[in-house]
Write a structure and sequence with these properties.
Layout: H1 2-17, E1 26-30, H2 41-45, E2 51-54, E3 59-66, E4 70-80, E5 86-94, E6 111-118, E7 124-134, E8 137-144, E9 154-157, E10 167-171, E11 180-181, E12 191-197, H3 203-218
Antiparallel strand pairs: 1-12, 2-9, 3-8, 3-10, 4-7, 4-9, 4-12, 5-6, 5-8, 10-11
Helix pairs in contact: 1-3
C-alpha cells in the first residue's frame, strides 16, 4: 500500500510540472502591428498600397527567434486576394539568424509543420491552426501556395508598421533562384505566431520527484 500511495504522490508531482492549457494563446512573435484592413486587390494594382505575392510563384516569409520552449497554437498573416482560395503556412527550423530553409519545395526535415489558411478578398488577418512544441532557437514562418494542397493566389499587404527589424525572406519556386533576404527592399508585413510558454519545472519540484523515485526504489 505504501508503494501505491507513493506512486500516486509521484503522479501528481509529475502532473504539476506539465504545462497547463490556457484558454487564450499569447503572441509569441509578430513582425508588424496590424495596419488598415479592407484593402482591395485593385488598390494594390493601382499602387495605393504595397503588396508581396503569396502564390505558387512566390513564397513570403520571416525569421524569428524563440528564447524559451513554447507550444505554438496558431499562425496568421495580413493577406488579400483577387479571388479567394487557400494558401499554406509552414514553420521551418533554422540554424541561426542568417539561415534559410533547406529546400525550395519545403520537403526537407527542417520543415516542422504546416497548415492551410483561407485568403480573404479584401485584406484581413487570416488564421490557421498549427500546434506543436518548439525549443529555443531560430525559425521561419513561410506563406505560399502550390504545396501541401494549397491552390489559391494572393498576397500580403504591406501596411503594417514593422516592430523592430524583422528579417524577411522570399523564394520564387519557378525561377531557380535560391531563397533570398528581402528586408532591404520590402517591409511592413504582418506575420504572427501564437502560443504559450512551456514553464520549466521548479528546482523544488524536481528535488521532490528525485527523492520520491529514490524512496520508491528502496522499498
Amino acid at each position: 500500500m505504501k508503494r501505491i500511495a507513493l506512486f500516486v504522490i509521484l503522479f501528481f508531482a509529475l502532473t504539476a510540472t506539465l504545462p497547463q492549457s490556457p484558454a487564450v494563446a499569447d503572441i509569441l512573435f509578430e513582425s508588424g502591428t496590424l495596419g488598415p484592413t479592407g484593402i482591395s486587390w485593385q488598390d494594390a494594382l493601382d499602387g495605393l498600397v504595397g503588396g508581396s505575392s503569396v502564390s505558387n510563384t512566390v513564397f513570403s516569409g520571416v525569421r524569428f527567434e524563440l528564447t524559451q520552449r513554447v507550444a505554438i497554437t496558431e499562425i496568421s498573416g495580413h493577406v488579400f486576394s483577387p479571388a479567394g482560395g487557400d494558401f499554406f503556412g509552414a514553420i521551418v527550423a533554422l540554424d541561426d539568424s542568417d539561415d534559410f530553409p533547406n529546400s525550395g519545395n519545403l520537403s526537407t526535415p527542417d520543415v516542422l509543420g504546416h497548415t492551410l489558411l483561407e485568403f480573404p478578398i479584401a485584406s484581413a488577418e487570416a488564421f490557421g491552426n498549427l500546434s506543436f512544441p518548439l525549443d529555443p532557437g531560430w525559425y521561419a514562418l513561410v506563406l505560399g501556395s502550390g504545396l501541401f494542397g494549397a491552390t489559391g493566389n494572393g498576397g500580403m499587404i504591406l501596411n503594417n508598421p514593422d516592430i523592430g527589424n524583422p528579417s524577411y525572406i522570399a523564394f520564387q519556386p519557378l525561377s531557380g533562384v535560391p531563397w533570398i533576404e528581402i528586408s532591404q527592399v520590402f517591409k511592413d508585413f504582418r506575420f504572427v505566431v501564437y502560443g504559450n510558454i512551456i514553464p520549466e519545472p521548479s528546482s523544488v519540484m524536481l528535488a521532490l520527484i528525485a527523492f520520491l523515485l529514490s524512496f520508491i526504489h528502496r522499498i
